[in-house]
Amino acid sequence: MSDKIAQEEINTVLWKACDTFRGAVDASEYKNYILVMLFVKYVSDVWQEHYQTLKEKYSDDEAMILRRLKRERFVLPPECRFIDLYEQRNASNIGEVINIALEQIEETNKQKLAGVFRNIDFNSEANLGQTKDRNSRLKHLLEDFNDSRLDLRSSRIGNLDVIGNAYEFLIAKFAAGAGKKAGEFYTPAEVSELIAELINPQAGERICDPTCGSGSLLIKCGNQLLKQGKKDFALYGQEITGATWALAKMNMFLHGMDNARIEWGDTIRSPKLIEDDTTMKFEVVVANPPFSLDKWGHGTAENDPFKRFHRGVPPRSKGDYAFISHMIETTTQDSGRVGVVVPHGVLFRASSEGKIRQQLIEENLLDAVIGLPSNLFYGTGIPAAVLVFRRDKSDNSVMFIDASREYQDNKNQNKLRQSDIDKIVSTYQARESLDKYAYLASFEEIQENDFNLNIPRYVDTFEEESEIDINGVQMDIKQLEGELVAVKQEMAGYLEELGYVA
């Protein structure tokens, strides 16, 4: 069976399993139960597969088999396999049974899974309903995952990408149904791909996302290197929401990036990626932070122990430049690059934001401003931009790209096509102006614009309207008026025949 067929089968079965919760539980909540069960099913199938292989090799030497199994990526304790849970699907305390199994899996794999399941409660009345309804839903969930097509042994799915892709498929589906909450845990795959290609991670580099959500942007950066056969890189992230942090940890594991360090906490108020009493430094920092976050930590920013806001403290009600400042201050001095998604207000708002923006430009850190189409992101229809900062710039120019008009127009959500991504990346790399699409602006031009980065100031997308033929339009109007008179006369004749007289 090819990977493609396995992928489609797995995706179909998984999405059908969501019917157990759909309509009864909010998508932003039930995603946790589906994704955790997918994780348990995967580790169970792989563990059982390895056990059978070793059993054939070492016959009945159970002690030897267990010693060998402990060398695997993870260890599955007794009675914690998916099949063990499935066989207890009719238990009156099935939610508690699943919780206990998760605790044991976490305890046995502390180094990689510590705390991952602490925010997931399969016995939650608030999320899953009262006992009878909860038991029924969990029974159906276990039965759905017992589908023969959801066989996740390595020998069947072909490679790890299939299960990782299935996980990403589900997260994207949940984001589509989660409304405004979707932005808290998911960046569209195409936007993540764009940023990864723009930043171009290299072997040996440390890559960080300080607002990592479920980790898709980090994984895209890692995949940029894996596609080149390079495994020498390190991934780091921090996420403020506990349940989303858990999703990121599982996402990394299912993509084979077990050694990624993902911390749980508030990046602005309490950065967790610390080294030698200061923030860690990374060659690559990427993020899709929350847009214009209110109450981001303004009160403590002025006395920040890590001096991240030395260019100025952003306004209390808009934290965009707080995240930008953090990202820049955590890059390596000579080779650091930043790719960040921002709302357009970041480009032109004045006051404290204007002062920070001006200083970043004067320090020659800003490398590119890229306008994206509207309605790309879940939970908001507003257009966004990508800012690229670099510490290794060879000149003081800034590349402006207006990519807002080139996209796939979908019914509910617009999407960047691969051709759109390729055009943005190639234009950015070429650093040459392109009529009605891109402009390479000098420092002096930006200075003349009072450091306002609003893209239309630099990229002229004005299209002249074609000249209207007034005489031709008048002739068309006369022709239509004549046709209308004829139709009215014809209708009057029909009505007269039917006995209707005006």
Characterize the structure shown.
This protein has 502 residues and is of the alpha/beta class. The chain folds into three domains: 3-177, Ferritin, CATH 1.20.1260; 182-457, Vaccinia Virus protein VP39 (Rossmann fold); 469-502. Helix content is 46%, strand content 10%. The protein is built from 20 helices and eleven strands. It has helices at 3-17, 27-58, 62-69, 82-86, 94-108, 110-113, 125-128, 131-145, 154-157, 160-177, 189-199, 216-226, 242-254, 298-301, 320-329, 345-348, 351-362, 418-430, 443-448, 470-497, and strands at 206-209, 234-239, 261-264, 274-275, 278-279, 284-287, 337-343, 366-371, 384-390, 398-402, 438-441. The strands form two sheets. Strands 3-2-1-6-7-9-8-10-11 form a nine-stranded mixed sheet, with helices on both faces. A two-stranded antiparallel sheet has the order 4-5. Strand 1, helix 12 (216-226) and strand 2 form a beta-alpha-beta unit. Helix 2 (27-58) packs across helix 3 (62-69), helix 2 (27-58) runs parallel beside helix 13 and helix 11 crosses helix 12. The chain is globular, with a radius of gyration of 28 Å. The chain starts with a helix and ends in a 5-residue tail after the last helix. The mean pLDDT is 90.
CA radius of gyration: 28 Å
Based on CA inertia axes, which overall geometry fits?
globular
CATH superfamily of the largest domain: Vaccinia Virus protein VP39
Task: Please identify the structural class as seen in this structure.
Answer: alpha/beta
Question: Which class of the largest domain in CATH terms?
Answer: Alpha Beta
**How is the largest sheet built, in terms of strand order?**
3-2-1-6-7-9-8-10-11
Mean pLDDT: 90
Strand content: 5-15%
- Residue runs with pLDDT of under 50 for 5 or more positions: none
Instruction: Please give the largest β-sheet.
Output: 9 strands, mixed
* Count of runs of 4 or more consecutive helical residues: 20
Task: Report the helical percentage.
Answer: 40-55%
